[in-house]
Amino acid sequence: MIYFPQLSSGATGQFPIARQRVARTVVNQSCENYSVKLADPGAGITEWHLSFEELTDQELAALEALFQAVQGQLTGFTFLDPADNLLAWSEAQNQAAWQADPLLIVTGNIADPLGGTAAFQLVNPSGATLMLQQSIDAPASMDYCFSAYVRSDQSTRVWLVRGSQTDARVLSQQWTRVTSAGQLQSEAETIAFGIALDPGSTVEVFGMQAEAQTAASLYKQTFETAGVYPNARFRNDALTITTVGPNRHSCELDIVNVEHL
Amino acid sequence: MFPTLKTGAVMQYPAKRTLQFATGVIRFLDGTEQRYCDSPSVLHKWTIQLDLLDEAEIAALDRFVQENQGRFGSFSFTDPWDGTVYPDCSFAADTFAFQLRGEMRAKTELTICENRS
User: Fold this and answer.
1) 3-state secondary structure of A108
2) N- or C-end of chain A: fewer Cβ atoms within 10 A?
3) Is B69 within 8 Å of A31 when comparing Cβ atoms?
């Protein structure tokens, strides 16, 4: 899998990060300002403008290696949006993107910590550990941070699943945002994120979020599209690098994801 | 409904609102002219400039534009000047761009226009 590399800090981008989504709507407008519109959802384009400063030789080499591997704008690569949640349907656990173990009971419409009713309850009535997880097509070897708001009326714990890593977090009756972050030694081209419950436990969960960075940012709700773009491309065939000193490089990149390619 | 910021506000200063009439003018050779109203009513347009948004606020706006597929969709918009609800509005463009200049420092600009329905 060819993918956009992370910096040594674990981040995919540096501030400022600019993102633009472009839809296509065909509009037939009359002289009296009445209009008939036709959507063209297949023509959507998402673009990012990334500016990098003070890159090390190693970081620059990784970017250059990617640029050469994909031959500029010729072929695609996997890009993880630094400004989005990588998990799709973050508030709809009944969607096919989520895989729940057969005996796990998932109940929605629970009051959430942001004042809505988008939390859900997980009940494990079995004698084994059960899991709700979502797998994304991204290299498991990158730095990730998985986060979720959790609470329970029981004195129990929850397991945060991040690939082959599971981290236990003790729960309270108050909503608490728990995180699991780090890098795995794995060559896998997919990685799963989710929640695992001990036998007999009941947990309320909200706002599951995965990000390709070392710490959690504010929760972002997602629907069918999330922050994983398996066929992104560079917009240009040229990569210009400015070196201002030893081990000090800068460059700017435009990345584009076109739905119909 | 158009999403509000965490403060409950829809817009930030400077806020811009446009009232748009369509008047047809026929000018004759002798300099006189005849004017006629080419549309049944005034149309409103709001230019919303937002700065210092956090990631959740900008993500909510991004999702809302996506749900509407750019200027294709229709939604109701409450004019923050007078509280009037305009039930049929759309984005003026198919493009939604924002810039993240740091944590909780997102910036964007949107234009909403009232549809003739």
Assistant:
1) strand
2) C
3) no
Asked whether residue B2 is assigned to any structural domain, the reply reads no
Contact indicator for A94, A132 with CB cutoff of 8 Å: no
What CATH number belongs to A98-211? 2.60.120.260
- Determine whether B53 is exposed, middle or buried from the number of CB atoms within 10 Å of its CB (0-12, 13-18, 19+): buried
User: Judged by CB atoms within 8 Å, which residues 68-97 of A form the interface with B?
Assistant: 83-85
Domain region containing B110? 16-114
Question: What secondary structure letter does DSSP report for A56?
Answer: -
pTM comes to: 0.87
Query: Could you report the per-residue pLDDT of B66-86, keeping only the tens digit for each?
Result: 999 999 999 999 999 899 999
The region, left, alpha or beta by phi > 0 then psi within -120 to 50, assigned to residue B8 is left
Work out the angle at residue A102's Cα, subtended by the Cα atoms of residues A100 and A104, and round it to the nearest 5 degrees: 65
Quickly count: other Cβ atoms within 10 Å of residue A105's Cβ. Answer: 13
Is the separation of the CB atoms in B89 and B75 below 8 Å? Answer: yes
Tell me how many residue pairs between chain A and chain B have CB atoms under 8 A apart.
94
- Locate B34 and state its tokens: 């005849």
Q: Is residue B4 part of a domain?
A: no
Please report, for chain A, the start and end positions of each structural domain, with discontinuous segments joined by +: 17-83+227-258, 98-211
Residue B55 lies in a domain: yes
d(CA A211, CA A86): 6
Tens-digit pLDDT profile for residues A49-108: 999 999 999 999 999 999 999 999 999 999 999 999 999 999 999 999 999 999 999 999
CA–CA separation, A232 vs A253, rounded Å? 12
- Nearest-CA distance from A198 to chain B in Å? 31
User: How near does any CA of chain A get to the CA of B11, in Å?
Assistant: 20
Split into its structural domains, chain B has a count of 1
Residue B69 inside a domain? The answer is yes
Q: Do A132 and A99 touch, CB atoms closer than 8 A?
A: yes
